[in-house]
């Protein structure tokens, strides 16, 4: 699996848009519905793709600046946020149920402050699809960093590490799931 399939971008949004993104993610729209009942629950904010700021403003920047493409070349499937508190590890998964070479995720880290000792890294595994076997290994680790994004194929199995007990807030990741049009 080529390392080039996973792209990391820093300083994603200008300061004013990063601040507005963070402020919008502080609204009382969170529900405890993320993850799975068997793999562990975490916080979730749904239907951000129905809001112009996420669907139009930020998605246009993502496409033009990072995907080097007109937004019309991508179909936005969904946009939502996940939130984890201390000890809420993510479960290894891929972002698509059926393999699709045109499915991608653009994952953004909006927390304005982060200390490396708070953990919260994103792990990519040497497995495509759902339910990795016990001998699956981590092939890439991306540290959580404010205003950073990771772009990757939706087929790659991955999971987010929980923040440490030193962190008293919510580790948020904001996901745009997209299909590249042919």
What do these coordinates show?
- With about 180 residues, this protein is mainly beta.
- It is about 15% helix and about 35% strand.
- It has two helices and ten strands; from the N terminus they run E-H-E-E-H-E-E-E-E-E-E-E.
- The protein has helices at about 15-25, 50-65, and strands at about 5-10, 30-35, 40-45, 75-85, 105-110, 120-130, 140, 150-155, 155-160, 170-180.
- The chain has a seven-stranded antiparallel sheet with strand order 1-8-5-10-4-3-2, with helices on one face. A three-stranded antiparallel sheet has the order 7-6-9, with no helix packed on it.
- A hairpin with a 3-residue loop joins strand 2 (about 30-35) and strand 3 (about 40-45).
- The longest helix has 15 residues, at about 50-65.
- It is globular and about 40 Å long.
- The model has no long low-confidence stretch (mean pLDDT about 95).
Span of the ends, CA to CA: 23 Å
Report Rg: 15 Å
Unreliable stretches: none
Structural class of the helix and strand makeup?
mainly beta
Number of DSSP-assigned strands: 10
Largest sheet: 7 strands, antiparallel
Provide the helix percentage: 10-25%
Q: Indicate the mean pLDDT.
A: 93
Order of helices and strands: EHEEHEEEEEEE
**Beta fraction:** 35-45%
Principal-axis shape equals globular
Strand order of the largest sheet: 1-8-5-10-4-3-2
Number of helices: 2
């Amino acid at each position: 699996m080529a390392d080039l399939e996973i792209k990391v971008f820093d300083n994603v949004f200008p300061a004013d848009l990063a601040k507005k993104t963070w402020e919008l993610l502080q609204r009382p729209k969170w529900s405890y519905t993320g993850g799975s009942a068997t793999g562990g629950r975490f916080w979730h904010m749904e239907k951000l793709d129905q809001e112009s700021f996420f669907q139009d403003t930020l998605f246009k920047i993502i496409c033009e600046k990072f995907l080097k493409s007109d937004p019309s070349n991508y179909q936005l499937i969904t946009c939502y946020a996940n939130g984890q508190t201390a000890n809420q590890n993510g479960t290894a998964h891929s972002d698509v149920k059926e393999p699709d070479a045109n499915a991608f995720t653009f994952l953004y880290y909006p927390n304005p402050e982060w200390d490396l000792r708070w953990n919260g890294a994103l792990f990519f595994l040497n497995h495509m699809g759902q339910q990795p076997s016990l001998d699956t290994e981590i092939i890439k680790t991306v540290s959580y960093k404010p205003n950073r994004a990771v772009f990757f194929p939706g087929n790659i199995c991955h999971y987010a590490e929980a923040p440490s007990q030193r962190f008293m807030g919510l580790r948020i990741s904001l996901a745009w799931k997209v299909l590249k049009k042919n």
